[in-house]
Specification:
The chain has helices spanning 4-35, 42-49, 53-60, 63-84, 91-108, 110-122, 127-152, 161-180, 187-200, 211-214. It is elongated, with a radius of gyration of 23 Å. The protein has 2 domains: 1-61, Orthogonal Bundle (Arc Repressor Mutant, subunit A); 69-210, Tetracycline Repressor, domain 2. The chain has 10 helices and no strands. By secondary structure, the protein is mainly alpha-helical.
């Protein structure tokens, strides 16, 4: 008798566990968006995912742990895809593409975005460390884009990529907070205008010919 079926079982179980986990996370996002975090309950999430409440607890523990897992996983994938999908420069165009891709994620689930903003900024460990590392990943990618733009001559020599990345993130979070609070209807345009204004101060200085040299 062949042992092949037995060899496949661990891989099959792992695949089924991963599929169940993804189904639970997606169900949690939908339920949190539908009724809000406080009103959501594990039984409703389990029913939406087609599993038992015990399965949800086994995979993710309590409701807050499930919330963190659902938010982090979804946002992480969105950020990585957005960064990987950026086309070639110029820098301002790349940043516009990134802004629109990430805000598109928030705008698809406005209620969940409020929770995401709060939890990502003020989460307890170990999630605080994970969200911090996630922000660090984006910061590093933005710093590289700015450094590459400087090498292309779009920004003046010596422009600090890390400081520019911090400036972009401050613009992004300011616009996100304004949008979540209902203070600004178009967060993408706000970020684009702030970025444009900031970039203008980092452009190479173009020397104008003096009157004597022009003669």
């Amino acid at each position: 008798m062949s042992n092949e079926p037995r060899k496949q079982r661990p891989g099959l179980r792992a695949s089924q566990k991963e599929a169940t986990g993804k189904a639970v996370l997606e169900a949690a996002r939908e339920e949190f968006e539908r009724v809000g975090f406080e009103a959501a309950n594990l039984r409703a999430i389990a029913a939406r995912a087609g599993v038992s409440a015990g399965t949800v607890i086994h995979h993710y523990g309590d409701k807050r742990e499930l919330l963190h897992a659902a938010l982090f996983d979804d946002l992480d994938e969105t950020l990585r895809q957005a960064l990987a999908g950026l086309g070639p420069g110029p820098l301002e165009k790349q940043l516009s593409e990134l802004t629109r891709a990430v805000f598109g994620y928030y705008q698809r689930r406005p209620k969940l975005s409020r929770t995401l903003l709060k939890e990502s900024l003020f989460a307890d460990e170990p999630w605080a460390r994970k969200f911090t590392a996630q922000a660090g990943m984006v910061h590093g990618a933005l710093a590289r884009l700015a450094t590459e733009a400087s090498a292309r001559g779009e920004l003046r020599p010596g422009a600090d990529g890390a400081l520019f990345a911090a400036a972009y993130l401050s613009f992004f979070y300011f616009a996100l907070i304004s949008w979540v609070q209902g203070a600004h209807p178009s967060p993408v345009s706000m970020v684009e205008h702030l970025v444009h204004q900031h970039l203008e101060g980092l452009r190479p200085v173009r020397k104008t010919p003096s009157r004597r040299s022009a003669r």
